[in-house]
């Protein structure tokens, strides 16, 4: 694998560096819906909350600890609480004002992904136990439990559209007006394991990223299938192929960013089928990333993603979180021009 020279700069894009990052692999980054507060979760069980100032500087505000690796997180709609879950098979609600944590969800295996659904005031959790569970966090038992065909590997929701990427390339599409049964069960058009999904802002479809450095643009309804296509990304030549670890839509322009195991993050426009900006490569994988609530900041974690095993030299790479000040030219659509397409 050509990861570049060991002397490659740790922060090649000159982005703001977050002080006191997690000391282990960073598994998720989630922004508050009401302010510039960022939560990071890590494989050592740590959960950190950072406050980001107007000048881009970020400092730790609070932290809490789980008994096992934390894999996912989500914010409450009012920004007062953070939900986090992982390999201890439970999810906790962390009240930032009181610093108290309480268990609000449980599965029979690790919780891989979660989301707070504001429209119905429920937390949804997807697990390796092959279930999707919805929680009224004031109650001990789930409000609804839905069987999945395989382990949950990816999840995203924009009410009423919920998309779950499962093992064996299975994709479950739910209409949350009837959450007890999948609206559609389809196979990913990508040939290899699903790594991440992202629902369109207009709820007409979703993106799928895989471990083969490829993204699929998919629409839910049959009459829009002609608009589906796939494109390659996070590759170097024909031999070095990297996982697409994260996809996030810009909240204003509807364009999106992909982040990969090659250490790159790139901005794209699916409607005009073009890459808007190619950023400089970081010296280690980008494990996760997300836009803040107004799309002015893109946070990303340069952190080993364990895709090459524990004995890889990159497993000793320092874990860092960077904040990119998003420029409008990087995310604003530029009009039709065929730059990416079915490949």
Automatic annotation (TrEMBL):
WD repeats: 63-104, 104-145, 244-278
Chain spans, region Disordered: 1-21
Keyword Repeat part of the UniProt annotation: yes
Keywords: Repeat, WD repeat
Alphabetized SMART domains for the sequence: WD40
InterPro entries in UniProt: WD40/YVTN_repeat-like_dom_sf (IPR015943), WD40_repeat_dom_sf (IPR036322), WD40_rpt (IPR001680)
Keyword Transcription regulation on entry: no
Protein's UniProt name: WD40/YVTN repeat-like-containing domain
